[in-house]
Amino acid sequence: MLLNSITSPDGARRNRTRVGRGMGSGLGKTCGRGHKGQKSRSGGFHKVGFEGGQMPIQRRLPKRGFNTDASKKIYQVSLRLSVLNKLSEENLKNDITILVMKENHLIPKNTKILKFYKSEDFNKKINFSNSNDIILSAGVKKQFEKSGNNNALSQ
Fold first, then answer.
1. How confident is the model at residue 131 (pLDDT cuts 50, 70, 90)?
2. Cα separation, 96 vs 110, whole angstroms
């Protein structure tokens, strides 16, 4: 098969309508625009959404959606303690803060509050910062008391 021998099947392509080619064509004289009126004139158009003076639908309906305060919302992320296994030993020696977690890509950037839940596969000694950003569940506090890691409860 050659490229120059490829054709469309019969009836797949219609010829464009040619208006103003005599009365016998069916689209002579007014060329399908009818008599008089705004749409029959050259340059006769109305702006998008215009409904003939009636209040347009985009003005009748109430505004909804799009809240610009999305960046100001307080986001809380809940994690198991086992997530801290992904941190390096160097980071575990220092206080664990939200900034450290963000730098290691363990929580989203817009996180404001971080809550830790109990995890059986974590038993390292760690310290959390004294800020109110990090919350420890009751199970985590008990887990640290059993392991003798009282420094972690310095909140």
1. confident
2. 17
For the chain, domain boundaries = 74-149
Q: Which residue bears the tokens 């340059």? A: 43
pLDDT tens digits, 23-75: 999 999 999 999 998 889 998 888 899 998 999 999 999 988 877 776 667 68
SS3 22: coil
DSSP 47: -
pTM: 0.50
What's the length of the chain? 155
Asked if residue 153 lies in contact with residue 144, where contact means CB atoms within 8 angstroms, the answer is yes
Q: In what order do the strands lie in the sheet with 75-80?
A: 75-80, 111-117, 134-136
> C-alpha angle with apex 70: 56 to 135, nearest 5 degrees?
155
Q: How many CB atoms lie within 10 A of CB 37?
A: 9
